[in-house]
Amino acid sequence: MNFLQQVVNGLSLGSIYALVALGYTMVYGIVKLINFAHCDIYMIGAYIGFLCLSVLKIGVAWSILIAMVVCTLLGILIEKIAYRPLRNATRIAVLITAIGVSMFLEYGMMYIFSPNVRAYPQITGWLAESYKIRGLTITSQQILIFAITVGLMILLQLSVKKTRVGKAMRAVSLDRDAAELMGINVDSTISFTFAIGSALAGAAGVLVGIYYNSINPLMGALPGLKAFVAAVFGGIGIIPGAMIGGYFIGIVEVFVSGYLDSMYKDAVVFAILILILIIKPAGLLGKNTGEKV
Amino acid sequence: MRKLIKNRNVRIALILLAVFAVVQILDTVGFIDGYIMGIIARVCINIILAVSLNLITGFTGQFSLGHAGFMSIGAYTCAIITLRYPTVLGFIIGVIMGALCAAIIGVLVGLPTLRLRGDYLAIATLGMAEIIRILFLNMEITNGAAGLIGIPQFVNWAWLFFFTVGTIIIITNFINSAHGRASISIREDEIAAESMGIHTTRSKVTAFTIGAFFAGIAGALYASYFFFLKPELFGFAKSIDVLVIVVFGGLGSISGSVVAAVLLELISSMLQSLVALRMIIYAVLLVVIMIFRPQGLMGSKEISGIMFKGVRERVQSKVRSVGKGKGGEA
After folding, report:
1. Do B119 and A92 touch (CB under 8 A)?
2. Which of A12, A90, A202, B177 is the most exposed place for a label (fewest CB within 10 A)?
3. Contact residues, chain B, for A229 at CB < 8 Å
4. Residue B258 to residue B250: CA distance in whole angstroms
């Protein structure tokens, strides 16, 4: 396996992490909550895609779209039922709730779909093809993943920077009380943030299903943690930071399993996390802010 | 003699002795079978874990998600030592070494990471626990993913009781000492504590290390009672289990942790027959408790505090009337 091949594989894996990390970073930026349920929304996205492709037998594009819509609704629902009543509770209480929601989704899916690993249906057509350029193999799935990720990120960046809702999101994440005084509907802005993050996770779920071919109810746990590491790496709350972090973690992971030992790839990711936290706790793009008394 | 019984410490000692004797007699008579003893063992281990995590999270306010990591260090150390020296002495050395190893790792992890605040610390400790788990998964001496089997069983009710009560007494005394007060002040306001001359890093690392030490003991007891270890037992889920006990019982309440450890174990063993639905019910319960009682069962109160509530209220009303008499701003 040559160097460039590893980079290509790393970019596809990193795309997935980046998509999931965006959800973490946006939610953290706005409500200061590590949304542990986020990785399970990603898992549910993968299952929706599985149902669409194998039962409804519709195209990949429609499957991704449907998964995104369902995950959006799920994200809004979770926020409304579990997190909104705790808006003014201590952060640890909200965190425990997030863990509870995560467990509920995982074991709920286990109950419905059984804990067994399921294989995604065989993808046919141009998505099954691969291209060889000077010994470098690029599958069209990798191109699809990369294109969709970059497309969604540009869309997200534009909507956060250019639209009214995006402006409201930035205002709420800066100072919730001040934003409320300025007439911004904080609740609906937070709902919107959860919606966008969940939609991205849903898309990532379907893409990972197509790419790796197997899904199970606990598939979200470890990628979820790593995506959060990616978000912290880039600077939590910062959207381009999550993308950089996602790609970095993806490439590091592929390199460690390619050149060292694949058993240690997770340990290396967490070691990077601890190093980053010690050297630059605000993350790569984050600014160090002093604490006000 | 009357005076002696009125003394609070003596009274607590008598109650503890009675609890110990009752279970011991029931055990000897054969009323308590292996299944019930297993539940008791899990409760005791969970109490040790929860009380030690409560010291870190509830009293010092440092959010740790890596308690299972320390537990696994204690468990593997004790298991490896007792597998070599299967005697009671070997077991005691194993427990002590397990606790010490966990404490040493606690210092090493705590020194750099405890400078971080809140969620960042949580993530760093989580990462640390994952690294420990992956190391155990790949090491020769821990037998990798297959785990260690046939660890000699030395733990019985007497050991469980001794270590559980010992943990509670030591941690309670620590909290009521000057060091403990310093820890609580850090929880309340770190900047204010620092400006009052408290060495915050040292206090935090001390609390973290003591917590790790007792988590190591809990792990050692687990290894010796359940005689089977594998790295998956000490994953993220285990850390969460302990945290849930602490939060459910109330952050900053030792008796809350004890009550919650007992209650949650009872709930989960009652739901044993509904294997598939058990975790779902558990999850829903968690969310519901957090929404309707986010401060946990006990808040930061202790059971003894509730028993003496009447006295305290009388004192407080007296203080208030004195304040009013002075015409102060109260």
Report:
1. no
2. B177
3. 123, 127
4. 10
Query: What's the half-sphere exposure (Cβ side, CA atoms, 13 Å) at B258?
Result: 15
- A225 contact residues in B (CB cutoff 8 A): 126, 130, 236
Contacts 24+ apart (CB under 8 A), B138-141: B138/A261, B138/A263, B138/A264, B141/B80
Q: Which of A229, A267, A281 sits opposite B131 (nearest CB)?
A: A267
- Reported pTM: 0.83
Which tokens hold the place of A15? Answer: 């795309």
User: Residues of B near A (CB-CB distance < 8 A)?
Assistant: 57, 63, 112-113, 115-116, 118-120, 122-124, 126-128, 130-131, 134-135, 137-138, 191, 236, 240, 243-244, 247, 251, 276-277, 279-280, 282-287, 290-291, 294-295
Task: Supply the pLDDT for residue A265.
Answer: 83
Distance from C-alpha of A262 to C-alpha of A246, rounded to nearest angstrom: 19
Q: How far apart are CA B249 and CA B296, in angstroms?
A: 5
Q: Which of B63, B131, B283 sits opposite A271 (nearest CB)?
A: B131
Give me the residue spans of the domains in chain B: 33-232
Q: Of B113, B123, B251, which has the smallest distance from its Cβ to A92's Cβ? A: B251
Residue spans of chain A under pLDDT 70: 1, 288-293
- Nearest C-alpha of chain B: how many angstroms from A155? 29
A119: region left, alpha or beta (phi > 0 left; psi from -120 to 50 alpha): beta
Question: How many CB atoms are closer than 10 A to CB B34?
Answer: 8
Q: How far apart are CA B133 and CA B157, in angstroms?
A: 29
Min Cα separation B291/chain A (Å): 6
Query: Mind listing the pLDDT tens digit of every residue in chain B (330 residues)?
Result: 566 666 777 778 888 888 888 888 888 887 778 888 889 999 999 999 999 999 998 899 888 888 999 999 999 999 999 998 888 899 999 999 999 999 999 999 888 888 777 777 888 888 889 889 988 888 888 887 788 888 888 888 889 999 999 999 999 999 999 999 999 999 888 889 989 999 988 999 999 999 999 999 999 999 999 888 888 888 888 888 898 888 888 888 899 999 999 998 888 888 877 777 777 887 888 888 888 887 777 777 777 655 555 555 555 555 555 444 443 333
Q: Which long-range contacts (CB under 8 A, 24 or more apart) does B35-43 make?
A: B37/B157, B38/B226, B39/B265, B39/B266, B39/B269, B40/B157, B40/B160, B41/B155, B41/B160, B41/B221, B41/B225, B41/B226, B42/B265, B43/B261, B43/B262, B43/B265
Candidates B287, B295, B297, B300, partner chain A, best to mutate (most A CBs within 10 A): B287
What is the distance in angstroms between the Cα of B195 and the nearest Cα belonging to chain A? 11
Measured at the CA of A71, the angle between CA A65 and CA A74, to 5 degrees, comes to 145
Largest CA distance in chain B: 74
HEC string for B176-215: CCHHHHHHHHHHHCHHHHHHCCCCHHHHHHHHHHHHHHHH
Chain A residue closest to B62 (CA)? A92
Which residue, B132, B118, B133, is CA-closest to B204?
B118
The total number of residues written for chain A in this structure: 293
CA of residue B23 relative to chain centroid, distance? 22
Domain residue extents for chain A: 17-220
